[in-house]
Structures are given as C-alpha cells and as structure tokens.
C-alpha cells in the first residue's frame, strides 16, 4: 500500500436523482476498502454531473464517458492507487 | 401503448402530484407563485376552441420539472383549457418510451398535448433550447470573470471547498436572474405548440 491518505470524491447531480447510484458506489467502496480509504466525499452538484476521482485523478466523468461507472472500474482505480 | 381516455385518467391531477411529492414541494410551489403570465399569454390558451388533455411525465427530484411544471400548472389554472394528468416517469416507462429526448434520453418534464379524441397535437421536452444556450453563455461568463473557479469543464471536486461554495452561489444567482426569461420562453413555446390546434 502506498503511503499517505487515499481519498475518493464522488460529485453527483442532486437535481437529477443520482443519489441511489452515488450511495451504491460509496457503499461498494466502503465494503471493499474499509479503512484503507481515508475518506469518501460526496459532493452534491448539478448540471448532470457524475464524476469520480481517486486522489485527485478523474477516473470517471458522465460527460466524458457517458453513463455511470462500472463499480469494478472504480475499484480497480483505487486498487492501483493503494498498490502503486 | 397509445394514450386513450382510460390511460389518461390513470394519471395524477396536478394537485395530486403535489400531494404525493416526497421532496421539493416548497420549491415547486414557490416557483409557481413567481411565474408571471402576461394577459395575452393566458388569453392564448383561454381562447383555444376546445380544451386539451395534457400528459405530463415528471418526478419530484428533477430541477427542470420543478422549474417548468409550475408554468404549465399556472397556465392550466388561469386558462381553464388544459386538463393535466401527471405520470411519474419511473413508474410509467410505456409512456416515457414514447417521448424519449433525441430517441435516447428519459428527459423530463414531458408535456404531451392531445385533443378531445386523444389525437396528439404535439409534445414538449425538458426546457427550451434558448434557455440552455443562455445559461451556458452566462456560465462561461461566470468562469471568465472568476479565475479562481478554474476551467468550466474541470471536475468541480478539484476546487477548494470555499471556492466551490462561491461557484454554487454564482450559478444559483445566474439561474434566478434568468428565470423570468426561462418562464417566458416556456410559455412562448407552449403557445406555439397549442396554436396548431387552433389553426
């Protein structure tokens, strides 16, 4: 595991009803990584946003990739950070 | 599935929709109070030769529903010529599939207008393009005038929390300032649509 805190941020459009997808992803990460993540921050936003970043690196953007991210893809990004 | 009287009557009245809202009812009703209708706009609906049925697809979490359904609600109340039935998008996919935005997106609200024999006159989706364009322009101006907000397309989570809060405030102010224009554009587009029945 790399040193230092590892943070995930999920920015979601609160006007679009994306709370279920946000909470599902947060729960997946909580159960998979537990205290190996220092924080999972949920940021209510607008404009159709659904963005996930790991340690400041954008790993999914609804605007860029379309749709919601596969949980496995986000988990792999986190694993890469933890082991990198 | 086509829309007939039996299907139409399965929908909620506008008041019924408001009564079942689990969130944002205060925002919807505040927007309803703030809508300013010109007498000629009300007359444009009141003078329709026949009442129209309007199928509405909506959900209480959607910002465009909270902004635009109250405009339709006020037009219905003040003209007496629009009979609304609201269907929750996520429980009525048969209807949603008929009105996909660009054939792909489940954008709401949808307002679909029918004559007395349930022949469709036309439908309206989400918000006027002119409103999307104006707000995109104003959004670009906010970023141009505030370098601390970074690039318009940059992930917002990269902003410090205080800058994020200021950006949110600026965007909300811009939305409030453009609301009268947005409401007027909704009315204009709906008038153009229903005028087809009067033609």
Structure overview:
Chain A has 84 residues and is an alpha+beta fold. Chain A has three helices and four strands. In chain A, a hairpin with a 2-residue loop joins strand 3 and strand 4. In chain A, 31% of the residues are buried. Helix content of chain B is 54%, strand content 13%. Chain B has a four-stranded mixed sheet. In chain B, strand 1, helix 5 and strand 2 form a beta-alpha-beta unit. In chain B, helix 4 packs across helix 5, helix 5 runs parallel beside helix 8 and helix 7 packs antiparallel against helix 8. The longest helix of chain B is centred in the last third of the chain and has 38 residues. Chain B starts with a helix and ends with a helix. The model of chain B has no long low-confidence stretch (mean pLDDT 94). Chains A and B meet through strand 2 of A and helix 8 of B.
In short:
The complex is a heterodimer of chains A (84) and B (199). Chain A is of the alpha+beta class.
């Amino acid at each position: 595991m790399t040193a230092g805190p590892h943070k995930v941020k999920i920015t979601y459009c609160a006007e679009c009803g994306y709370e279920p997808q946000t909470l599902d992803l947060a729960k997946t990460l909580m159960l998979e990584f537990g205290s190996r993540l220092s924080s999972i921050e949920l940021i209510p936003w607008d404009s159709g946003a659904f963005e996930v970043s790991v340690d400041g690196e954008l790993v999914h953007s609804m605007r860029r990739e379309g749709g919601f991210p596969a949980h496995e893809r986000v988990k792999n990004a986190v694993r890469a950070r933890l082991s990198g | 599935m086509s829309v007939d009287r039996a299907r139409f009557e399965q929908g909620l009245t506008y008041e019924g929709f408001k009564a079942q809202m689990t969130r944002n009812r205060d925002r919807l009703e505040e927007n309803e109070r703030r809508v300013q209708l010109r007498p000629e706009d009300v007359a444009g609906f009141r003078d329709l030769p026949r009442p129209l049925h309007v199928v509405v697809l909506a959900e209480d979490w959607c910002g465009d529903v909270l902004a635009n359904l109250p405009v339709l609600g006020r037009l219905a109340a003040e003209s007496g010529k629009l009979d609304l039935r609201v269907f929750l998008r996520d429980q009525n996919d048969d209807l949603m599939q008929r009105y996909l935005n660009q054939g792909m997106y489940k954008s709401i609200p949808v307002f679909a207008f029918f004559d007395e024999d349930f022949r469709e006159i036309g439908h309206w989706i989400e918000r006027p393009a002119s409103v999307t364009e104006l707000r995109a322009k104003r959004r670009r101006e906010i970023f141009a005038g505030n370098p601390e907000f970074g690039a318009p397309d940059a992930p917002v989570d990269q902003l410090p929390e205080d800058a994020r809060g200021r950006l949110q405030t600026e965007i909300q102010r811009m939305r409030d300032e453009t609301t009268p224009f947005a409401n007027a554009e909704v009315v204009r587009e709906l008038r153009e649509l229903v005028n087809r029945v009067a033609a």
